[in-house]
Specification:
about 375 residues; alpha/beta; Rossmann fold; 10 helices; globular
């Protein structure tokens, strides 16, 4: 595989390392020479032991175009649509866009979907938790109806975002990046939209369909420097009537990344980072001893798992992948609906027949 990665921040380094560990060729691109130098001298060697001399680095205006198997976009979300649409013109086999795919305005979302389809280019969105080993175990319980009929579903990504700034020490705080601005894809609703995406994924695993109703409450920080939601609470309902809850915040310490699916015959819980370097799945069924499965992993493992999945998906049916563009776009509809609901104090209904546009959202 020949790979081009746009963005030399934390995600770009993770994707570069994962690609190299899979034996792929990597060109890393950024519009800031300081970011490329920081990658070569600090971020990459600090994380992985040494700079990989096989990685080629380029300023954006001098980067090669065309001839790539994969193009990865690891830049801030308010740049994703323009870069992804430009990447389609290079005709790679696939594009991976980091989450969140875009801001709640959904600007460019439908156009990206239309252009990717017309060009025959597969697009994936970087919600890597849905292809992790622990998540696959939970999906097996749900798809096999081992819990009986699914009655409700809860997912929480409650995590103080200090870890993000620790990984980006050149940022003094959220005001210096998209993170401090919800319209740019930041705040709890955007940065921790892994939770909404995971909720949707588990609902699909159980055959409950897509989210069609959203009722949300958001708590904003607006101090003249930033405008972001630190807490996003969502009540969700699917096409098949499944009702549940999704919580995302950027304030909880220590973090709690957790999900629970309650069925008529038992429940299963998913824990991310239940202890350092370990995810866990705990299931309880009537008349049986509760089972616990622990999955050891490192942060780099998450990205290797993600890229291995994409490689396999390209050999099969990429549109069926839980990382497929349609799933990422559905998550952005839910995020957009949450903001509309919080703004109006009303329930928002999603009409998928209208595509991934603001017009797909209506007040009830």
């Amino acid at each position: 595989m020949k790979v081009k990665i746009l963005g030399a921040g934390s995600i770009g380094n993770h994707l570069s390392n994962a690609s190299r560990r899979l034996g792929w060729s990597v060109d890393l691109v950024d519009n800031d020479p300081a970011a490329l130098e920081r990658t070569r001298s600090s971020i990459y060697p600090g994380r992985y032991g040494a700079w990989d001399l096989e990685i080629q680095t380029f300023a954006s205006d001098k980067a090669p175009k065309g001839g790539y198997d994969l193009i990865f976009i690891g830049t801030p979300p308010d740049s994703h649509m323009a870069l992804a649409r430009a990447a389609i013109a290079e005709k790679p086999r696939a594009i991976l866009v980091e989450k969140p795919l875009c801001g709640p305005s959904l600007k460019g979302a439908q156009e990206l979907a239309d252009e990717a389809k017309a060009a025959g280019v597969a697009v994936f969105v970087g919600y890597d938790h849905v292809v992790g080993k622990a998540t696959r175990l939970v999906s097996d319980y749900l798809s096999g109806q081992k819990l009986g009929a699914l009655q409700t579903l809860d997912v929480e990504f409650r995590e103080y975002w200090g870890g993000i700034f620790a990984a980006h020490p050149w940022l003094a705080g959220p005001w210096e990046s998209y993170l401090g601005f919800w319209q740019r894809g930041g705040g709890a609703s955007g940065e921790h939209s892994h939770a909404a995406n995971l909720w949707q994924h588990f609902a699909h695993s159980a055959g409950a369909g897509r989210v069609v109703e959203v009722q949300a409450s958001l708590d904003f920080v607006r101090d003249g420097r930033v405008d972001y939601d630190r807490l996003c609470l969502m009540n969700l309902k699917t096409e098949k009537g499944l009702v549940g809850r999704c919580v995302q915040d950027v304030v909880t310490q220590p973090p709690r990344k957790w999900a629970r699916a309650q069925g008529s015959d038992g429940h299963v819980e998913w824990w991310c980072g239940c202890e350092p370097g370990v995810d866990a799945v705990v299931a309880s069924l009537p008349g049986k001893v509760a089972s616990e499965h622990k999955v050891s992993k490192t942060r780099p493992d998450d990205f290797i798992e993600e890229l291995t999945h994409i490689d396999a998906a390209l050999a099969g049916a990429p549109d069926a992948s839980p990382l497929a563009l349609s799933r990422g776009l559905d998550t952005m509809l839910v995020v957009a609906a949450a903001h509309r609901s919080a703004e109006t104090g009303r329930r928002v209904v999603i009409d998928y027949s209208k595509g991934w546009r603001p017009s797909a959202l209506s007040l009830e």
